[in-house]
Design brief:
Largest sheet of chain B: 2 strands, antiparallel
Number of helices of chain B: 24
Helix content of chain C: 55-70%
Shape of chain B: elongated
Distance between the termini of chain C: 47 Å
Radius of gyration of chain C: 23 Å
Order of helices and strands of chain B: HHEEHHHHHHHHHHHHHHHHHHHHHH
Number of domains of chain C: 1
Radius of gyration of chain B: 38 Å
Structural class of chain B: mainly alpha
Chains: A mainly alpha, B mainly alpha, C mainly alpha
Number of strands of chain B: 2
Strand order of the largest sheet of chain C: 1-2
Oligomer: heterotrimer
Strand order of the largest sheet of chain B: 1-2
Number of strands of chain C: 6
Chain lengths: 104, 684, 534
């Protein structure tokens, strides 16, 4: 019996990744961890892009979108990390619960 | 002499004193002592010109009137103009000489009298403007100009009476003189307004001629009489007639030569001159009022003069009394005699004042020498026995006293006698017998009090025998004017006949003018009056001689021979004496009534203005302010309250909803996800 | 007649030279006090020179009043022109300047008094820059009122003048300056509001054909308002002797009466005078009060001749009250400035009386009195200012005997005092006599009653003179110095004018003769004047 990897598998993996990501974003107190959760979410989306692209026969459109997302993710990470760094400087913590005010 | 020359001379006479004033005001400090020479010299030149005018006018141009008029203000349309101009008739020519002569001699007298005064040059400057103003009145040919100079005379008197203004009494006296005169002037001005609104011109000649054509103010003879009497008000003020005579005795606060000038030639003479000048406009009623005012003045002031001790006060009241005489004379219709008395009186009254000045000067010096500052140098009780020490002053003073008492061979006799005859004639014609009675009584009183002054001052023995040695005759600058005036107080200057003035040049030169008022309101005609005078002439002479003699006799009996004790009489009627000595309490009366009323009204109105009117304004302001405050409250509480309530309501809900705003990113995200799931759930 | 200078009309120069000065003053740093003073003085001197040009070039034979063709130095441009607004029609406001015999003496007076006022402000030290800027702005406002012939423009200048006055009293004044300034401002504004209402009513009643298109346009042109033919039928102010016209006249009258000031609207005056600095008192008495009577002559009476005649008797009566009431109130004062303020009330009464006479002598007397009161009262206030500068008191009873201490000063003071009490040979007499002569022909008894004022004036003036200048000098004033050269420069020209016009008034009378006669004729018009109160 040949075991073919179908679209469903990809979606399944992606859903797990997404759920893990959401979980991380919602429950982690550490900002870095939250960021990592976001990365997971983005990557789950990437998987979907590539999978749908492959199975719907749309050349490389999906791949391109995935690459685009990866770029954006990199940028976002850079900016977000910078913000986190600043928050740390300001509040001496990266715990997102303690950073609830907009000003001092 | 030609007409132009006359007018040029007259103009020069008018303006030279003004030049004297200006020069002395601006360069007085530099000229210092020389200012007297400048002033006297300039006035002397006007005297010369006046004499030239006088002689040629009387001798060669007897019946001509020279006039020069120019338009001063042209109102444009309706042909209304105000003219100024000068005119010379015989009356003017005579007055010019009187004014400039007295003025010149007063200047001369003042040179030594005022020596050492702190405002020496200013004094002469003011004498200059005084002469200028008076000459303006004399030369004026219209009411406007006469009014202008009338007021200027008021100013000059203010300046001169207040010459020693550091003294409160002098400052008060000058103020009083000006204000009392103003009261009269306002009357005169009202008269002028009536004339202007009737005739549209103020020139004498035009008004007289229009009036003789039947034009009268507001077609009513009452207004015509009123106009005349209002003009006369001016004379009442300036000539110190009852009831405005109160300023004149106070005016003695000025230097004595000034008194001579005021009393003899300027100012007080102006009133009489005015009556004479505008004589044609007076109705019979107006003339009767004038006669009575004159008579009352003459009587009241004669009684006051009897009870005064200050030599200048006696003379002042005698002036008022004599002015009353002149006014009365004009009022009864004795035009020429009234005016004649003005001229003769000018000479002997100026002499009397300068004589008293000479005495006061001597007394002042001797008192100063003895370091005596308590004795009043003007009180006749402190004098006596000056006859031998000051012979010139005494003899001239005697002549003046004889003249004013109406003793034959003097000028005073001539004029007074004629006035008395006039009053008799008047009572014959109209039945007002009280006028001649007053006139003769006053004649007797005048003789009495004038000899009282003469005896107490010059005869008997001096009050303080230590003092008498220090008294000397005054210097020549002071005695010369006395001698000149004494000469002019004798009859032959005026008439060849010592008992009848009408034979002299004066009576042919000054003739009563024809009246301009309608016949039904005019006084008795010139002819009938002349006839009545002629008829009464003998009676008047006899009576006046008797009465004057009686007055002199009583005076000698009382003060020289001491047969009658003056003190005893005083003690018998202390109240009467006090009443007379206090001048009938006129000043007090005016203080308590007019002055009090004015000041109280002023204070009440000022209070009214401050409290009521301004109070209303401030009240309006504070009402507005409270209203504003109230509506501000309303705005704050009610209107703004509603607004705030709305805001609070929203705020309340906001507070509730705010609780979900935790500021935690993860909560928001959770909400977002839940929301997304719910959307997915519901809309799928 | 060349009435242009650098292609700008001479009246514009007259009016706006002070604004140029003001801008220059504002550009100078505030430390350079002398420069600021000299710039201000320069501006007023230029104005004075222009006024001399006007005086020499003014054609004495043209009457003006209600005829735009005989107005002189006319400048007429469209200023605000909004084409057809819905339900409002076209709005057309002109920049219309011109003078006639009524305004020319006032223009000269304003130039003269402004010059004197700047000179007398020399010793001001407190924020000098603002002071002179405001003073010059005030000058513009006053001048503008006297030269504008467009009612709107007139109103604008009228209001412009208020503002600087408010600050000048409120900042540089005495201890109660704020009270006085606010009182002055609100009082005048109250009058302005009435004037504004009448202005609007007139605007909607009057229309003239446009020069180019011929369509009927509402106008603010005063001269057009004087012609009954320009009133639209059925408009509010159409016709003669209607109650709306009477109401409008009374509205205008109150607006102007407050400025004069006429009893009972006079109480702002003593306060404003007492608190204002010397120069402002001078301007207030010298020019501002005349704006009231000028307004009556220029605006109220010719626009509403019917109402003017209807209210002639009350006008004369108010004149009488002003004369006597003012004099009596003056008599009771112990503050030198207050006394002069009340004497102003009294003297302005003479203007009213002369105006009410409605004949040549009365009108000329009134106009001349306006001029003379300006110079004489200016002198009086300067005189008070001189001793106030030295002693810092104005209490009449604090003084005495200054005559010997300050001889030059006293000489000038004597001239001013006697001019104020109407001594012949000084200008006050001439106008007073003319006013009375005129008034007597129309109102016999009121005039006779008013002559009481002549005596009262003599009374309080001489009493004041005695209290301040005669008698003994108090010990504390032994060190007072006599008047200095700057003070002489401002007082002597006024004294000379007072004397010259007293002796020979024709130079000024000439200017106004034609206009005064025209004004009288025009107001009397076909309405035969019924003489009341005989």
């Amino acid at each position: 019996m040949t075991f073919t990897v179908s679209l469903n598998h990809f979606i399944f993996v992606s859903a797990i990744l997404f759920s893990l990501g959401i979980y991380a974003v919602l429950t982690r107190r550490n900002a870095i961890m939250v960021l990592m959760g976001i990365e997971l979410i983005l990557n789950s989306a990437n998987i979907n892009f590539v999978a749908f692209s492959r199975y719907a026969g749309m050349d490389v459109n999906g791949h391109l979108a995935a690459i685009f997302v990866i770029f954006l993710a990199a940028c976002e990470a850079a900016v977000a990390l910078a913000i986190v760094l600043n928050i740390y400087k300001q509040f001496n913590t990266v715990n997102v619960d303690e950073v609830s005010t907009m000003k001092d | 002499m030609t007409e132009t020359l006359f007018l040029q001379f007259a103009t020069a006479i008018l303006f030279i004193p003004l030049i004297s004033f200006l020069v002395l005001i601006f360069f007085g400090k530099k000229l210092s002592d020389k200012s007297a020479i400048v002033g006297s010299g300039l006035i002397g030149s006007t005297l010369l010109l006046s004499l030239i005018i006088f002689f040629s006018k009387i001798n060669y141009f007897h019946n001509q009137t020279f006039e020069y008029t120019f338009t001063w203000v042209d109102f444009g349309y309706y042909d209304s103009k105000i003219n100024l101009g000068i005119m010379i008739d015989n009356m003017t020519a005579i007055m010019l000489v009187v004014v400039t002569l007295v003025s010149f001699l007063v200047h001369l007298f003042s040179i030594s009298y005022m020596k050492g005064d702190i405002r020496y040059s200013r004094y002469f400057a003011f004498l200059g403007i005084f002469s200028f103003s008076m000459l303006g009145i004399v030369l004026a040919d219209n009411f406007f100009m006469i009014y202008v100079f009338w007021e200027l005379v008021g100013l000059s008197s203010y300046l001169l009476i207040g010459h020693w203004y550091e003294k409160t009494s002098a400052a008060n006296a000058s103020k009083k003189a000006f204000i009392v005169n103003r009261v009269g002037d306002v009357g005169m001005f009202t008269g002028i307004m009536i004339l202007w609104s009737t005739f549209g011109t103020l020139d004498f000649e035009k008004i007289f001629s229009l009036m003789s054509l039947g034009v009268i103010p507001f077609e009513s003879t009452v207004w015509l009489t009123a106009a005349g009497l209002l003009i006369f008000c001016g004379a009442v003020g300036k000539s110190a007639q009852f009831p405005l005579h109160v300023w004149l005795p106070d005016a003695m606060e000025g230097p004595t030569p000034v008194s001579a000038l005021i009393h003899a030639a300027t100012m007080v003479a102006a009133g009489v001159y005015l009556i004479a000048r505008v004589f044609p406009i007076f109705t019979a009623d107006a003339l009767i009022v004038i006669a009575y005012i004159g008579a009352i003045t003459a009587f009241v002031s004669a009684t006051i003069a009897i009870a005064q001790y200050d030599i200048k006060k006696v003379l002042a009241y005698s002036t008022v009394s004599q002015l009353g005489y002149m006014v009365m004379s004009l009022g009864v219709g004795g035009f020429t005699s009234g005016f004649f008395h003005l001229v003769t009186h000018a000479a002997f009254k100026a002499g009397l004042f300068l004589g008293s000045g000479s005495v006061i000067f001597a007394m002042h010096h001797v008192l100063h020498h003895h370091n005596d500052h308590h004795t009043d140098p003007q009180d006749i009780r402190n004098m006596g026995g000056l006859k031998n020490k000051m012979p010139i002053t005494f003899w001239t003073f005697l002549i003046f006293t004889l003249a004013i008492s109406g003793v034959p061979l003097t000028s005073g006799f001539l004029s007074k006698d004629d006035i008395l005859a006039g009053t008799l004639a008047f009572s014959d014609l109209t039945g007002h017998t009280i006028i001649p009675i007053i006139a003769f009584t006053v004649a007797g009183m005048t003789a009495f009090y004038m000899f009282r002054v003469l005896i107490l001052t010059f005869m008997g023995s001096h009050a303080d025998s230590h003092r008498i040695d220090g008294i000397h005759e005054s210097p020549w600058q002071m005695t010369t004017p006395l001698i000149i005036f004494a000469a002019l107080s004798l009859f032959f200057f005026y008439s060849p006949n010592p008992t009848n003035a009408s034979e002299g040049w004066f009576y042919s030169a000054v003739v009563r003018p024809e009246t301009a008022v309608p016949e039904n309101v005019s006084a008795s005609s010139i002819e009938s009056f002349e006839e009545a005078v002629h008829h009464n002439h003998g009676k008047a002479i006899t009576l006046s001689l008797l009465i004057a003699g009686l007055g002199i006799l009583i005076s000698f009996a009382t003060y020289y021979w001491k047969k009658i004790s003056a003190d005893k009489i005083l003690n018998m009627f202390p109240k009467t004496f006090k009443f007379l000595n206090m001048k009938w309490y006129f000043d007090e009366l005016y203080d308590k009534t007019v002055v009090w009323f004015t000041m109280t009204t002023a204070k009440v109105l000022a209070w009214f203005d401050f409290k009521i009117i301004d109070g209303l304004v401030n009240g309006t302001a504070s009402v507005t302010k409270s209203t504003a405050f109230g509506s501000g409250k309303f705005d704050n509480v009610v209107v703004d309250g509603i607004v705030n309530l709305t805001a609070y309501t929203f705020g309340f809900f906001g507070l509730i909803i705010r609780t979900i705003q935790t500021g935690k990113v993860q909560t928001y995200l959770a909400f977002a996800i839940v929301g997304a799931l719910m959307i997915f759930f519901f809309f799928n | 007649m060349n009435n242009n200078f650098l292609n700008i009309g001479i009246l514009t120069w007259m009016t706006f030279i002070p604004v140029v000065g003001m801008i220059a003053v504002l550009l100078v740093p505030k430390e350079q006090k002398t420069t600021i003073r000299w710039i201000s003085l320069g501006a007023t001197i230029v104005q004075l020179i222009f006024s001399v040009i006007i005086y020499t070039n003014f054609d004495r034979s043209l009457a003006g009043v209600n005829n735009a063709a005989t107005m002189q130095f006319v400048e007429r441009y469209s200023w605000i022109d909004i084409k057809s607004v819905e339900w409002f029609g076209r709005i057309h406001i002109e920049y219309f300047l011109g003078i006639d015999g009524i305004s020319v003496p006032m223009v000269l007076l304003t130039a003269l008094i402004s010059f004197v006022a700047v000179l007398s402000s020399w010793s001001i030290e407190k924020s000098i820059k603002g002071y002179f800027a405001l003073l010059l702005l005030l000058d513009t406002g006053m001048m503008g009122v006297f030269v504008s012939l467009d009612f709107f423009l007139f109103y604008v200048f009228w209001e412009i003048m208020l503002l600087p006055m408010y600050f000048l009293i409120g900042i540089w004044g005495g201890p109660r300056r704020e009270y006085a300034a606010i009182k002055f401002f609100i009082y005048t504004l109250f009058g302005s509001v009435l004037m504004l209402l009448v202005l609007i009513a007139l605007y909607f009643s009057v229309s003239i054909p446009d020069a180019s298109t011929g369509e009927l346009v509402h106008t603010f042109d005063m001269i057009a308002m004087m012609n009954p033919a320009n009133y639209e039928a059925n408009s509010l102010l159409f016709g003669l002797n209607t109650s709306w016209r009477y109401i409008a006249y009374v509205g205008l009258f109150i607006g102007f009466a407050i400025k004069v000031p006429i009893f009972p609207f006079h109480t702002w005056l003593p306060d404003a005078h007492v608190e204002a600095p010397t120069a402002i008192s001078v301007i207030l008495a010298g020019v501002l009060l005349k704006m009231g009577t000028y307004g009556l002559m220029r605006v109220a009476m010719p626009i509403f001749p019917d109402a003017a005649i209807y209210y002639l008797y009350p006008l004369a009566f108010l004149g009488f009250i002003n004369i006597v009431y003012g004099a009596l109130c003056a008599m009771a004062q112990t503050d030198f400035k207050k006394l002069i303020a009340y004497s102003s009330v009294s003297h302005m009464g003479i203007v009213l009386l002369g105006m009410a006479a409605l004949n040549t002598q009365g009108m000329i007397g009134a106009m001349f009195q306006m001029f003379n009161h300006g110079t004489i009262t200016a002198m009086l206030f300067l005189i008070v200012g001189v001793i106030y500068d030295r002693t810092h008191t104005r209490g009449l009873n604090d003084f005495g005997g200054l005559m010997n201490q300050m001889p030059k000063y006293s000489a000038i003071m004597v001239i001013a005092f006697f001019a104020a009490l109407g001594l012949p040979g000084l200008s006050g007499f001439v106008s007073e006599v003319f006013s009375f002569l005129g008034a007597f022909q129309t109102f016999r008894w009121i005039t006779i009653a008013s002559t009481l004022g002549i005596v009262l004036t003599a009374g309080y003036m001489l009493w004041t003179l005695q209290r301040v200048f005669l008698g003994e000098l108090p010990e504390k004033w032994k060190s007072l110095t006599d008047i200095n050269n700057r003070e002489l420069i401002m007082l002597v020209p006024l004294a000379i004018i007072v004397i010259l016009l007293g002796v020979y008034p024709t130079p000024i009378l000439d200017l106004m003769n034609a206009s005064a006669n025209e004004l009288v004729d025009f107001i009397k018009g076909e309405n035969n004047l019924t003489i009341l109160g005989q």
